[in-house]
Design goal:
Layout lengths: L10 E6 L3 H16 L3 E2 L9 E6 L6 H17 L5 E6 H6 L2 H5 L5 E3 L7 H11 L3 E3 L13 E2 L5 E5 L1 E2 L10 H5 L3 E2 L2 H13 L4 E5 L15 H9 L7 E5 L8 H9 L6 E3 L7 H6 L6 H14 L4 E8 L6 H14 L3 E6 L17 H24 L5 E6 L7 H4 L1 E6 L4 E5 L12 E5 L2 E2 L4 E3 L5 E3 L2 H8 L4 E2 L26
Parallel strand pairs: 1-2, 1-3, 3-4, 4-5, 5-6, 8-11, 11-12, 13-14, 14-15, 18-21
Antiparallel strand pairs: 7-23, 9-10, 16-17, 16-19, 17-18, 19-22, 20-21
Bound molecules: iron/sulfur cluster.
The site of iron/sulfur cluster has 12 residues, from helix 6.
Length: 499
């Protein structure tokens, strides 16, 4: 493949690292570029005209990985005149001009607050034949006002807030994403309605701390109200959210979850540590009894709720006794799954310079014990579902063995991954359709349903998947430069441990 000939549309590719925020930002980057006349490069194309790296600064070695990838691209760019490389996301916000100093073949660096400027910066860099670096200190416009090219026909992310007012000592997010900015409920609901109008069945409300939603406009019950308002949207079958914060979690949110039929009974609530001393050192202002209290109330209101979490092992100063407290909470909370992380220094965070960093082998050994405990519990929790009927929203290609086994996969309402036997309805079930099926086997990380589905419902999302359409939300942009031909039909194509 070669870069676009003069007159034809320039092609682009976005490479995404990190959390759901970044995945959703990449949908905006794609929407913006397509609005400006670029077309998505076919997957096998290794020489698109524009390559955008949407980076993450949370993971250890994120910068080595970025510079390694940029290094690989250098000879490709040298042999394809006109190719442009742009770097955005959290690492760009953090490293700024250093990126073009270390990799002078990069054309554009943009930050987390000015995604909307990307097409202009690409054009300016082309015109001036010089790198453009533009980083803003705070949000220009709420990013949901940008055009968005959605990756899924059946499920969509909707941002309710960006940024975070907390100061967890291991986290770089507040430094890179800024203070919390809340979007107006009416704007959130319009975007949800627009997605549902396009056939989307499931929406995930997205914020660094959804429970503090409303802090900016003075309504601490705004999140529960938003969930209830989602319940009034016809055609919206599943509402999820991520991430809640135990500090700000209020009972009305539990009531809204329990009383709003389309809100899924699944809760991903980061624990991070079961030790109150470690939570204090992390500057997380809840304690383990508060955390467990929320879980108790959630289970009392929704006995079928699946609760998942994030846990960091080996935070500086963590003792064996602290770690045992984490294991105690894990046993008591009975998580249906947990994302477990070994603490690693993230440059720019307070925890990175704390004394008492733990030796790697201590962290590793605790990590292995934690995983064993988490898996034992999640397996036992999954086994309780054998014999139950579950509703599955069929997904695109989750589960690599599906092709060989005649199975398809999807998520149950509680978020569990289900592989189900689709042989009898081969070719009829599409991603985005809904099936009911009976669980026959449980593994620690998924369920199998090996009998024929009990029901299959064709949906508009399934029709869209079959037709190769993906939803777009237009945004309100003025004065964008456009290039080349208009966008052609789209081709079809995840978490951050920040909390
Ligand atoms: S971990 Fe989550 S709550 Fe804490 S500062 Fe980071 S984004 Fe905010």
């Amino acid at each position: 493949m070669t870069t676009a000939a003069a007159g034809s549309a320039r092609t682009y590719q976005v490479r995404t690292y990190g959390c759901q925020m970044n995945v959703h930002d990449s949908e905006r980057i794609s929407g913006l570029l397509e609005e400006a006349g670029y077309v998505r490069a076919p997957q096998a194309d290794d020489t698109p005209d524009v390559v955008v790296f949407n980076t993450c600064a949370v993971r250890e070695n994120a910068d080595n990985r970025l510079y390694g990838n940029l290094g690989h691209l250098r000879p490709v760019k040298d042999s394809h005149p006109g190719m442009q490389i742009a770097v955005g996301g959290c690492l760009a916000q953090k490293d700024r001009g250093d990126i073009v100093r270390r990799a002078p073949w990069v054309d554009v660096v943009f930050g987390t607050h000015n995604i909307g400027a990307l097409p202009v910066l690409l054009e300016r860099a082309r015109h001036n034949a010089a790198a453009e670096v533009e980083i803003l200190e705070s949000l220009d416009v709420f990013p949901s006002t940008l055009p968005t090219r959605r990756e899924s026909t059946y499920a969509g992310w909707v941002s309710i807030s960006v940024g975070c007012n907390n100061t967890c000592t291991f986290c770089i997010v507040p430094a890179l994403r800024g203070k919390e900015k809340d979007r107006r409920p009416g704007d959130v609901l319009s975007e949800v309605r627009a997605l549902v109008d396009e056939g989307v069945l499931e929406v995930t409300l997205l914020g660094q701390n959804v429970n503090s939603y409303g802090v900016e406009f003075g309504d601490r019950y705004a999140f529960g109200k938003l969930l209830r308002a989602c319940g009034d949207i016809d055609g919206l079958e599943r509402v999820r959210f991520t991430s809640p914060h135990p500090k700000d979690f209020t009972d009305d949110v539990i009531a809204a979850m329990a009383e709003t039929p389309n809100v899924c009974h699944s809760l991903h609530m980061p624990l991070q540590s079961g030790s109150d001393d470690v939570l204090r050192a992390m500057r997380r202002s809840y304690r383990s009894d508060r955390y467990l209290g929320i879980i108790e109330k959630v289970r009392a209101a929704m006995p079928d709720a699946a609760i998942t979490t994030d846990i960091i092992v080996g935070f500086p100063g963590e003792t064996e006794a602290d770690f045992q407290r984490t294991l105690d909470v894990v046993r008591e909370a009975r998580f249906s799954s947990a994302f477990t992380f070994q603490y690693s220094k993230r440059p720019g965070t307070p925890a990175a310079s704390m004394d008492a960093q733990l030796p790697k082998q201590v962290v590793q050994e605790r990590y292995e014990r934690l995983i064993a405990s988490v898996e034992e519990i999640s397996w036992a929790e999954n086994k309780r579902l054998v014999g139950e009927t579950v509703e599955v929203l069929v997904a695109v290609g989750e589960g690599r063995k599906d092709g060989r086994t005649g199975r398809m996969s999807g998520r149950a309402r509680d978020g569990r991954l289900v592989h189900f036997d689709a042989a009898e309805l081969a070719g009829q079930i599409r991603p985005g359709d809904i099936v009911h099926t009976t669980v026959t086997y449980a593994a620690p990380h998924h369920l199998n349903a090996d009998g024929a589905p009990l029901t299959h419902r064709r949906t508009r999302a399934g029709d869209a998947a079959e037709a190769g359409r993906s939803p777009r939300t237009p945004g309100v942009l003025l004065g964008l430069p456009t290039i080349g031909a208009p966008a052609a039909a789209p081709a079809p194509t995840t978490g951050c441990a920040a909390h």
